[in-house]
Amino acid sequence: SDYQQLDYNLRVNLFQGGPLETRSLMRDSYTPDIFQKAVIDPRHWHGRKISELGRWYEKYFLDLNVQKSMKKKYG
After folding, report:
1. Which domain of life is it from (predicted)?
2. Residues 18-59: pLDDT tens digits?
3. Residue 49: CB partners within 8 Å, gap ≥ 6?
């Protein structure tokens, strides 16, 4: 069957994986001087401060843990 053929191909490793060199559409679209002119401010990330992002992720993962605990306890 098709599944057995796919299983055989995966076990034999006929699928060699991804390309050896990764390409970025953004890097291909702009000239190198754009990236040299770019100023990276480590305190701001797309208009948000890193501390704000950290607090958001902390609340997000706390909420996920509470949801998992409630699901485990009450089903």
Report:
1. Eukaryota
2. 666 777 777 777 777 777 777 777 666 666 666 777 888 889
3. 43
52 and 32 within one domain:
no
Q: Do residues 1 and 35 share a domain?
A: yes
- Residues spanned by the domain of 51: 41-74
Residue type, 6: L
Do residues 42 and 50 lie in contact, with contact meaning Cβ atoms separated by under 8 Å? yes
Backbone angles phi, psi at 58, to 5 degrees: -60, -45
- Whether 2 and 30 share a structural domain: yes
Residue 64 Cα to chain centre, angstroms: 18
User: How many independent structural domains does the chain possess?
Assistant: 2
Structure tokens at 48: 């948000």
Helices and strands per DSSP (H, E), number in the chain: 4, 2
